[in-house]
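Recap quiz, item 2
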Amino acid sequence: MLLRFHAAGRDDIHHTPQETFYRKGGCIYMDSKNIIRLENISVSFDDQSVLQNLDLQISDGEFVTLLGPSGCGKTTTLRIIGGFLKPDSGSVFFDDQLVTDLPPHKRPVNTIFQRYALFPHLNVFDNVAFGMQVRKMKKEEIRERVEEMLRLVNLTGFEKRSVNTLSGGQQQRVAIARALAIHPRVLLLDEPLAALDLKLRKDMQAELKNIQKRLGITFIYVTHDQEEALSMSDTVVVMDSGKIQQIGTPQDIYNEPTNAFVADFIGESNILDGVMLSDYLVEFFGRKFSCLDSGFEPNEPVDVVIRPEDIDIVEPIKGDLVGTVTSVTFKGVHYETIVDFKGFKWMIQTTDFYDVDRTIGIKLNPEDIHIMKKSEYSGMFGDYSSYSEEFDEMADPEAALTGEEAEER
Amino acid sequence: MKTLSRIYTALIFLFLYSPIAVLVVFSFNNSRNRVKWNGFTLKWYADLFENELILESLKVTLTVAILAAVISTVIGTLAAIGIHGMNRKLRQTFLAVNNIPMVNPEIVTGISMMLMFVFVFRMTGLLRPGFFTLLLAHITFCIPYVVLQVMPKLRQMNRHLYEAAVDLGCPPVSAFFKVVLPEIFPGVLTGALMAFTMSLDDFVISYFNAGSTAQTLPVTVYSMTKKPMTPEINALSTLMFLAVLLLLILVNVAQIRDASKKGRKI
């Protein structure tokens, strides 16, 4: 499903005057670097805290992903930006203008909802035209723009179709066209691909990213899928229990996680207890390793992260550590090998096959070792002792869509 | 076994419908005799439409039924939307409260409303028992039925639909008419038809709340039975039965059509 954009696509959209409120306020929006700013937002439902003192700034034109397990508050954050939910305390700014009390129909943002929320009694054309008809635009202009939008999402010729006859992927495209037709400055996407199958999801990821680049508008994307977040975003915001754990580029988040939660949630991680002896020198498993991290107190206890793909397997005699293989799973690209080191089980991803009960050594280079300060998450993640495929599947929030929805109720 | 069950079913229908059959048959009887068949006539129907009292109460009945159906549908739909938006606990409480008038003995509802109207009238001089109190009473007992018809439609609706409309710049009220109402309309329609039917065939509540100035058809029929009866009553009852039957069929057809539409979607 490759993209074939109409050449006129982007320019038309970019130069259309914004007929939204912030113009009236006399604010020149291009000067403002942050298009959206959340300050000190707190929300709770039934005495249960969902967001705690959240601060977030989003730059114009960025692809930002809010990533976290279900119930972490990411959807709630999105609903606050969309105006569907009023925070208990805190402020929302758009182009440095306070909009906390502005109702959703007056905000220059549009939302792609989890289950698309297309209007079932309208056909594709009328769905896409809805926002423009509300704005009382000229018929001719509406018709042109609907065509342009349907071309953008590769649905030319679907105008007269009932939305109920479309497949999930096609409905998703209509939802995107509908939201983009009124030229929002910011598009909010609430797990838009969760209901699609894997193959279609991959295609749509690329397509969404492409549309965002083309139009140059800000996307705020909510997902629990870390792979999706890493591959699409300019900035990833990792959230858990109503707090932002880390904000950074996908590379930062993966390579320099700030705590055990982030390290575990993004990719696989072996997380060990260690002691920072001095700058660039850490001790764990009773051995000293040189590393690239500094700025800790002498002898400060730390969490040590070692990614499974960074570990080199060597002869036991040459290894920094020696352990026994306890299980091997073939994953296609590599073998996922669980190795027991003095009772602590590590995951190692290797292209070579080492059978169960084989004794192996591993070698760690300084750049393979990442040091994190101790946090409330220390000791909760990063041990593969109880690791099994099914267990991991169960912990995956894929099936927990309903949980995320319940969060707002 | 099969014949046995058929006989059983036939018996049940016989018991259920034989009184009505007798009623209908004797409405065409060319005699005042209620036992002996004396040949076919439409005389009683003709008489019916010359009877001032009956025509007047027919007018009252229809006016009340239409007004009560429209007003209770509006109030009931709004109530359903409000209840739907509540959290689970409140919603269940409100639905339980909504159901009480439907299971409450009609005579209790009727008398309690009469007592309240009399009380208000004595205290303030407003709400003199008559057409207006009759209408108020009918609206009141119709609302729960409307709520009950609209609620499931709201529950079936994708709850993001309204938000999507607002999100696209639609002000809340117009979002309701453009997006929510078309979705729940089958429920609203059956609710209105139910309300109309309930109002049309209500006797007990009308009897207590109509005062002396406004009489509905069922109340008139009742007062006719106190005097020497004519087969006019048969004719009138037959017509009322047919009217209600027709409405029930309409409600059912609407529901079936809606269900099959839903089936096609999936």
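Residues 1-32, 389-409 of chain A have pLDDT under 50 and may be disordered.
The interface with chain B takes residues 46, 82, 84, 103-106, 109-111, 113-115, 117-121, 130-131, 134-135, 164, 178-179, 182, 409 of chain A (CB under 8 Å).
End of item.
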